[in-house]
Write a structure and sequence with these properties.
It is a single chain. By secondary structure, this protein is mainly alpha-helical. The protein has one domain. Helix 4 runs antiparallel to helix 6 and helix 6 runs antiparallel to helix 7. It is flat, with a radius of gyration of 27 Å.
């Protein structure tokens, strides 16, 4: 038993090393034989891909360990990928001020990762926690965007609250899903302690007390 427990981290580390070797080998072969340079291809998009690619690798590693041991990879991969996506958007639009509320997407991505991992692996305990985390973070993101891009920025950049009705629909849907996946308690058969005690203490040949 101890050998099997100690073998799992070694196996996960070996898988990570093999994936890195495979990625490097594929990039080398494609560059030398096909003439495609990945770094030159992503150059116009910028450096955020150096954050996005490791995040995608972590997401893939989430499926390697036996459930639910891969949930850590899933959450880490979702967070790293989301940070890279935010940086990519900001580097292309120069809208760096969006960090004032875009940070809420980071815990939201962790919640979404928990939900997806729970659905893929059948780990129902992660669904409710992930939905609540993602829902709360989505509300914080919407409130921050409404404040910083609307009230704080002035009337010329005000946000119509009527355009946010899909968020309300998503929150209601998340609550419905939580209600559906939450385990329902089963009513245990009721027993009368007094009758059970009396039946146990009644000696053979004696009538049971009424």
């Amino acid at each position: 038993m101890q050998q099997s427990l100690g073998h799992r981290p070694t196996t996960a580390t070996a898988v990570i090393g093999l994936l890195l070797i495979a990625v490097g080998a594929v990039a080398l072969v494609v560059r030398e034989l096909v003439g495609v340079n990945f770094f030159a291809s992503i150059g116009p998009w910028g450096w955020p891909f150096f954050v996005i690619v490791p995040g995608v690798v972590l997401l893939g590693l989430a499926l390697v360990p036996a459930p639910p041991r891969g949930v850590g990879f899933a959450i880490a991969g979702a967070i790293v990928t989301t940070v890279g996506g935010i940086l990519l958007y900001q580097s292309q639009t120069e809208h760096w001020n969006s960090w004032a509320y875009a940070w809420a997407l980071i815990p939201a991505s962790a919640g979404v990762a928990m939900v997806l991992y729970g659905l893929l692996t059948g780990t129902r305990g992660l669904l409710a926690s992930g939905l609540w985390l993602a829902g709360i973070a989505a509300v914080m993101f919407a409130a921050g965007a409404w404040f910083f891009e609307g009230l704080f920025a002035g009337d010329d950049r005000s946000i119509d609250l009527g355009n946010w009705w899909p968020v309300g629909v998503m929150v209601i849907g998340a609550l419905v899903v939580v209600r559906a996946v939450m385990p329902r308690g089963s009513a245990a058969p009721s027993t009368t302690p007094s009758s059970t005690t009396n039946a146990a203490t009644t000696e053979p040949g004696q009538p049971a007390p009424s």
